[in-house]
């Protein structure tokens, strides 16, 4: 099957080629993301293979169908960048990678939490400049603290398990509570209780119209003063302007972001030699108690291997006309 692979980085090519050895598809790689300007590149391909910041809105999907494309294969879990209703209307199937390594993302969330709490990012820079002073580096014990996990699915549960291992009390919030989460020794709580008692809030729910800006001025005002916020899920969950105000007032004690609302314009490329036009991002990274990583939580050898193998299997299922194990449908 002919597949146009968008946003193809060197590591994507290496791991997709390795996985494709067993499947034999014709993969054509494009550096550019899929969007209205690049969609013409997909003409004549049966499928497009896309990542988190590619755009498969209704216009792009219509252009894809005109070019003969019948499958959108996401090489990620989230599917907020695909208009599923338009895909269904146009007869375009959508598949994703449901479960590659929840550990990769949960472990990165923990790494970011530890770094922001113990000021590792500042200590790293200081000691490189022979500054061994401790002023401004004080954190707090995680032991005994209360951690809120918003979205208690696969990643949220791994994160919860790790935090329980630190001796934290873990509270969960989920639209669809799961017994597996409670079996870990955590419990569900209402947003008000989470707000009043959580020292740390970590986001692990998908971005949907319902969860858009779930962290906003109101929820931040309800939070415990000085709480730490970790977002490794999707940038749109957080109202960035509101978070900046909460950081300025001290209401939010620290912020660790692996994802950012406007990340499509900056992430996954080296812009170190350019002037960044995004003032909000520049303001964010100027805070000493904020760390940003460029959507790298998934980026482990194990996760990429599984992502690529599953993506190739998804393509082969479509080609073989068998039921699609990882199909995403409009609800
Ligand atoms: P999952 O489907 O296993 O879990 C998501 C959970 O969120 C489910 O329990 C679901 O019930 C819950 N949820 C849905 N709507 C909700 C709402 N309105 N309020 C509260 N909870 C709600 O997904 P997962 O594999 O754990 O992944 C979670 C998210 O992590 C993905 O949607 C994706 O956005 C993000 N992610 C990020 C990276 C990264 O590299 N940063 C990598 C993979 C996934």
Automatic annotation (TrEMBL):
This is D-isomer specific 2-hydroxyacid dehydrogenase. InterPro entries: D-isomer_2_OHA_DH_cat_dom, D-isomer_DH_CS, D-isomer_DH_CS1, D-isomer_DH_NAD-bd, D-LDH-like, NAD(P)-bd_dom_sf. Residues 110-297 form the D-isomer specific 2-hydroxyacid dehydrogenase NAD-binding domain. It comes from Caballeronia choica. GO terms for molecular function: D-lactate dehydrogenase (NAD+) activity; NAD binding. CDD domains: LDH_like_2 (cd12183). Keywords: NAD, Oxidoreductase. PROSITE patterns: D_2_HYDROXYACID_DH_1, D_2_HYDROXYACID_DH_3. Pfam families: 2-Hacid_dh, 2-Hacid_dh_C. Residues 3-329 form the D-isomer specific 2-hydroxyacid dehydrogenase catalytic domain. Belongs to the D-isomer specific 2-hydroxyacid dehydrogenase family. The keyword Oxidoreductase applies.
């Amino acid at each position: 099957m002919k597949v146009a692979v968008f946003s193809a980085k060197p590591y994507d090519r290496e791991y997709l080629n390795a996985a494709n050895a067993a499947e034999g598809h014709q993969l054509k790689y494009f550096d550019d993301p899929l969007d209205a300007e690049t969609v013409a590149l997909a003409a004549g391909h049966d499928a497009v293979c896309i990542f988190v910041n590619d755009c498969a809105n209704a216009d792009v999907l219509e252009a894809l169908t005109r070019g003969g494309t019948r499958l959108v294969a996401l090489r990620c879990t989230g599917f907020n960048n695909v208009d599923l209703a338009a895909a269904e209307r146009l007869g375009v199937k959508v598949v994703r990678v449901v479960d590659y390594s929840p550990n990769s993302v949960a472990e990165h969330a923990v790494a970011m939490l530890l770094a922001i709490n113990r000021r590792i990012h500042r200590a790293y820079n200081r000691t490189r400049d022979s500054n061994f002073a401790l002023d401004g580096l004080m954190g707090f014990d995680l032991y005994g603290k209360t951690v809120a996990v918003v979205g208690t699915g696969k990643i949220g549960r791994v994160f919860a398990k790790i935090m329980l291992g630190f001796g934290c009390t873990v509270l969960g919030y989920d639209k669809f509570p799961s017994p597996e989460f409670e079996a870990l020794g955590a419990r569900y709580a209402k947003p008000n209780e989470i707000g009043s008692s959580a020292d740390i809030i970590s986001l692990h729910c998908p971005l949907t119209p319902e969860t858009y800006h779930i962290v906003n001025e109101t929820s931040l005002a309800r939070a415990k003063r000085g709480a730490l916020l970790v977002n490794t899920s999707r940038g749109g969950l957080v109202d960035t302007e509101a978070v900046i105000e909460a950081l300025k007032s001290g209401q939010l004690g620290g912020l660790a972001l692996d994802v950012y609302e406007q990340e499509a314009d900056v992430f996954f490329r080296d812009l170190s030699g350019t002037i960044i036009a995004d003032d909000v991002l520049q303001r964010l990274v100027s805070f000493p108690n904020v760390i940003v990583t460029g959507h790298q939580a998934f980026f482990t050898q194990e996760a990429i291997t599984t992502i690529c193998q599953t993506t190739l299997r998804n393509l082969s299922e479509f080609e073989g006309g068998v039921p699609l194990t990882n199909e995403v449908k409009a609800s």
